[in-house]
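Quick check before the chapter quiz. The format below is the same one you will see on the exam, so make sure you can read both the input and the output lines.
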Amino acid sequence: MKRIFRVLGACALVAACTTGAQAQNWPNRPIRMVVPYTPGGYTDLMARLVSQKMSEALGQPFVIENKPGANAVIGADAVAKAAPDGYTFGTVIAAHAVNATLNPKLPYDTLKDFTYVSLTSVAPLILIAHPSVPANNMKELIALAKAKPGTLNFASSGIGSAAHLTMEMLKSREGINLQHIPYKGTSGALQDTVGGQINVMFDVIGPLMSQVTPGNAKALAVTAKDRVPAAGATPTMAEAGVPDFISGTWSVIIAPPGTPKEIVDRIALEAKKALTDPELKKKLDDQGIVAMGTTPDETRAFVTEEIARWRKVIVDAGVKVE
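Here is the expected output.
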């Protein structure tokens, strides 16, 4: 028995030394950053901006790999099952926390199967409508939806996304019915909204305002407590007649479980440094995004709280996987 314990102890020592050496030599090749959505949306933007700054600091390129589908499950699962060697990370948003409740067939455990690295940003949403929609403010939109139940539709970046659940909150609160058309990311949803196939949609401010400014869409309200400079004169939901209605999304860097702590801490540190860069912060401000930067422990606590918060929204609104 003593011999067995000596062998086990020796194995543990070898493993610890291997991990330490691995962390000391890291990084010596490109690092993969998985984005579970199509290019052009909030998640992709955050991954690219922060990765670029971290690449400069670490001396190795970050390769962005877009793996959309299943409301971010495909991309997140790729991270969960990757080798924990410090060469695979991912960027997820609020849908990642939502899936813990909404999807009973997840191929991973949302808390156990990931290393949480850093909360990089938070962002309110904006509601836009195609110019053909005969409603120019929230009161008119709600009245229209009540007068013609089920005839209006709305797009989202995916089932269970913050954009989807924010509209479900509005539907439940105001007693209205709109048909949900889910996409695999913001870009496709926005394209069809501008094209007139979709009536309204919620999403982060930057991409949507890029279509509001030239008149391809009209902005109705933002889901923030106060007005957001990036959204111009767009009123808050409270100002538009829907009080106590605040929602939004966020971006978090994740890694496979078992990724060496030294590497995780370094990525969190470099992400925080990147997010204090004046140039990067201005780019985020212009998009209506608030830069953050947290420790791994703070990030895990945040995601745990978000799972509970979105679970309540899902239950209260009676949202089911379609």
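If your answer matched, good. DSSP finds eleven helices and ten strands in the chain.
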